[in-house]
Amino acid sequence: PVLDTEDAWVSVEGPVSIVELALEQKRIHYPLVEHQFVLCAVLYAIMRLSLKGVKPLSLFDSKGKNVFFKDLTSIQLLPSGDMDPNVLSIRQQFLLKVVSAAVQTLCSSQKDKEVSEEEYFPFEKGKNWPDLAADLAQYLQISEDLVRRHYVCELYSYGMDHLGEE
Hints:
The protein is mainly α. It is 59% helix and 0% strand. It has helices at 7-10, 18-24, 30-48, 62-66, 85-113, 117-120, 129-139, 144-157, 161-165. Helix 5 (85-113) packs antiparallel against helix 7, helix 5 packs parallel to helix 8 and helix 7 packs antiparallel against helix 8. The mean pLDDT is 82.
């Protein structure tokens, strides 16, 4: 982009402007950023929902593990569409655990104090864990419908029929 500057600013000395610094930066490889986002979302779900026995790196194949902690501007080989069925099974189990833990947390908090999800997760207003799991399913190559069906079954099993019907 062309940046027009006034003549008075041309002779000014001092540190380089933030706009010029931003323009000098290398462009990031967006699929690599998405891959890092998936890892962050997985780690956050494990921490926030207190999931036990989950190994986050087991959700990724060898290519996926190798690109972590690389420079975001580098072009890396990311996992292709063909995945090992064992990895897909582990991913599916993880997403179902996230949905189950979210419903269990919501139901236990409502039974204890009749509080809403927003009050139980005060810093996460609008955060819907089952929706996050369904979004992650797209990145992890798992059927989104499978996650949503499990969510409905969990709602019914905890007596939240009115939410399950929706």
